[in-house]
Specification:
Layout (H helix, E strand, L loop, with lengths): L1 E4 L7 H11 L5 E6 L2 H13 L2 E8 L2 E8 L11 H4 L3 E5 L9 H17 L6 E4 L14 H9 L3 E5 H6 L10 E3 L1 H10 L2 E3 L2
Helix pairs in contact: 1-2, 4-5
């Protein structure tokens, strides 16, 4: 039985660490330790979505998630190979994720992109519109994440009109400068458009 200590890790690190541990799972069970109820809920939800059974034990301020392989034969719920290769496009129209506090929105966007990088299934394109193009600037806090996504085959596409509007033509650190026709065509051809 492997013990994975995720105490002190900020979201989404406990889920990412759990995913990596499950990918290497040799035995029947792992125990993930977290110290926050939200981390506990997120790890539990993720493990169950991947077909594992989960038992949670709370001891003091810590949560112990006992995650076991489910014995399934011919699971009809798992996606076919055809479904795995569908075109997915992520559309970001802001440098922040969500509406409200800017500092929180910036933190959430970084967590979103970092999680996108860690996932096995990634989008074909990441489209940046309006202030979303600021994510691709040379001084962006997420530039290294976007570069890593690009290296893994995700095309970073920036709206040219938006880059001009923000005066960023000489400050783009990653991605191709595109136009509305190309962006719209990409959205229409996608099987799924993710707009967080």
């Amino acid at each position: 039985m492997s013990i994975i200590d995720c105490r002190g890790l900020a979201c989404p690190e406990p889920v990412i660490t759990t995913q990596k541990a499950l990918d290497r799972l040799q035995g029947e069970e792992i125990v993930v330790i977290v110290d926050h109820v939200f981390s506990c809920n997120n790890v539990e939800r993720f493990a169950r979505s991947q077909g594992y059974s989960v038992k949670v034990k709370e001891e003091g301020e810590n949560f112990y998630l006992h995650i076991r392989k489910e014995k399934t034969e011919g699971n009809s719920e798992s996606p076919s190979e055809e479904e795995r290769v569908k075109k997915i496009v992520v559309y970001l129209n802001s440098h922040l994720l969500g509406v409200g506090d800017d500092a929180l929105g910036s933190f959430l966007m970084k967590a979103f992109l970092k999680t996108l990088l860690e996932l096995e299934r990634r989008p074909e394109r990441l489209i940046l519109i309006n202030s979303g193009v600021q994510l691709a600037s040379e001084d962006s806090k997420v530039l290294e994440i976007l570069k890593a996504l690009s290296e893994k085959g995700v095309e970073i596409v920036c709206c040219g009109t938006c880059i001009d509007f923000y005066g960023m033509k000489d400050r783009i650190g990653i991605g191709v400068i595109s136009n509305m026709h190309d962006i719209l065509q990409s959205l229409l051809e996608a099987d799924h458009v993710l707009r967080p």
